[in-house]
Amino acid sequence: MLQAGRLRGNGSGLRMAMFLGAVLLVVGLAGCGPIVPFQDNLNPYPQVELTNWNLLGKIVIREPIATRVGDGQLHIVVPLRNLTDDELYLEYQYRFLNAKGVQVEQTSGWNTIRVQAHGMAQIHFTSLTPLANDFNVDIRPLQ
Predict the structure, then answer these.
(1) What is the DSSP-derived secondary structure letter of residue 95?
(2) Cα dihedral angle (55, 56, 57, 61), rounded to 10 degrees?
(3) Residue 101: is it exposed, middle or buried by C-beta count within 10 angstroms (0-12/13-18/19+)?
(4) Do both 118 and 60 map to the same domain?
(5) Predicted confidence (pLDDT) per residue in 86-110, tens digit
(6) How do residues 29-76 score in pLDDT, each as one tens digit?
(7) FRET pair for 14, CA 20 to 30 Å: which of 31, 108, 114, 133?
(8) Distances from the Cα of 124 to the Cα of 15, 54, 65, angstroms
(9) What CATH number did the domain enclosing 110 receive?
């Protein structure tokens, strides 16, 4: 009788251990999904720079689009998105560079753009000459 009680006790302990093991396995597998890696903090579009830390995390810059127009002038479109609940008023200035990285036109003045809350906008600018092969643009909050 004492022996039978031990077997019964071991059996329920074994069932409890198996049940807990199954629960742990299910919980462990539930956490096994795709693991998103940390994003690289390097600017993927080095031609676009924010001149104010306050904008970091408030706007997202999409890949700039460069096309040739007219007599070979370089036309640039820089899409951006507002991540905040408020309208953003921004300023930008740009410069064009030749194939060797030398500036070929004067730096523009500051231009303004308004981006609605959670909205998208585009910055557009075109070189005056076909000598431009690259560009830089600085973006800051409206001063």
Answers:
(1) E
(2) 90
(3) exposed
(4) yes
(5) 999 999 999 999 999 999 999 999 9
(6) 555 555 544 545 566 788 999 988 888 889 999 999 999 999 999 999
(7) 31
(8) 69, 23, 10
(9) 2.60.40.3230
Sort strands 134-141 and 48-50 into parallel, antiparallel or unpaired.
parallel
Token look-up 């690259």 returns 134
Q: Which helix (H) or strand (E) holds 89?
A: strand 88-97
27/55 same-domain check = no
Task: Give yes or no: residues 94 and 32 share one domain.
Answer: no
96 and 131 co-located in one domain: yes
Is 89 inside any structural domain? yes
Range of the domain at 34: 1-38
Domain total for the chain? 2
Nearest-angstrom CA–CA distance, 141 and 143: 6
User: What is the spatial distance between Cα 107 and Cα 16, in angstroms, rounded to a whole number?
Assistant: 74
